[in-house]
Design brief:
By secondary structure, the protein is an alpha+beta fold. The chain has one domain (4-109): GMP Synthetase, Chain A, domain 3 (2-Layer Sandwich), CATH 3.30.300.20. The protein is 51% helix and 22% strand. It has helices spanning 4-25, 59-68, 70-81, 98-109; strands at 32-40, 46-54, 90-95. It has a three-stranded mixed beta sheet with strand order 1-2-3. The longest helix is centred in the N-terminal third of the chain and has 22 residues, at 4-25. Keywords: Cytoplasm, Ribosome biogenesis. Monomer. Binds 30S ribosomal subunits, but not 50S ribosomal subunits or 70S ribosomes.
Length: 110
């Protein structure tokens, strides 16, 4: 059960990370990265961000690239939310494959 504070911080991080990824992927035509959900630990030290990546076959490659540049992403996030948060949480990124799963279910039902 997440507290109200966890939910507010998760929404804030989701919004800011979405804007960061939007700016970074403008230089890559045909690539779309969106932040599906952010879950934050009860002590506010770790944030798990689930990314929906289009096209999905480049998902693993993109996650490796994002994890390699995690320090710069966290720094950019820290500059954006420095007035709302005292400590910027450690970021962990994962592929959100729920849309692929839904497509697979639809195909099986047809």
């Amino acid at each position: 059960m997440e507290t109200t504070r966890q939910n507010k911080i998760a929404r804030l991080l989701q919004k800011e990370l979405s804007e960061i990824f939007l700016l970074q992927t403008k230089s890559m035509p045909g690539m779309l990265v969106s932040v599906s959900v952010v879950r934050i630990s009860p002590d506010m030290s770790v944030a798990r961000a689930y990314l929906s990546i289009f096209p999905s076959e480049k998902g693993e490659e993109m996650i490796k690239n994002i994890n390699a540049n995690m320090k710069s992403i966290r720094y950019e996030l820290g500059k954006r939310v420095r007035h709302q948060l005292r400590i910027i949480p450690e970021l962990k990124f994962f592929v959100d494959d729920s849309l692929d799963y839904l497509e697979k279910i639809d195909e099986l039902l047809k």
